[in-house]
Amino acid sequence: MSLIRLAYASEATFDAQPVEKGVEPHVARILLTSRNNNAKAKLVGGLYYGNDRFFQYLEGEEEEVRKTFDRIKRDDRHRNIITLIEEPIEARTFSNWSMKYVPLSADVRKFLERHGLDRFNPQAFSAEQCEEMIELIRDSNHDQKLVNHDEAVTAPASKPSGFSPALKFGLIAAAVCLVGALIYAGSLL
After folding, report:
1. 3-class SS at 123?
2. Name one Pfam family in it (predicted).
């Protein structure tokens, strides 16, 4: 049983669409597929997408990591794929994540500022920046959508409302009509 870790950077070939539920729609589809495939292959890791670029980190059995990376290299949603890290490891560090997703967060902005970077471009990362980015993904757990092989969890900054504004308006209007109908019916008696 030979474990390896692999980090790569790539450019997205798609035009980014408006973010839905905290995740760009193309990236959401990638995450769903990765989540299922990685859980079956017992791979763990994380993904960051920003400025039309991906940074992904994988850990697992060497054969499974290589098969997954080969599949990624054939995926037409990626281009200019660069392997940043590929080496053996003794133990997993993302123990229960089949694919953790970190959207743009304060942590990533601080990382970019600390390194004097005006945009996210992992193809140009130094070895130290790659390690720091892996650590950031591993430790990130607030104000973002986290995807693991058990369930999708959203960690909201504040308690979300169960109703959309349109539904709230409709319910209030229905309640006003009902009260008005009851008052009218009571006046007929």
Report:
1. helix
2. BLUF
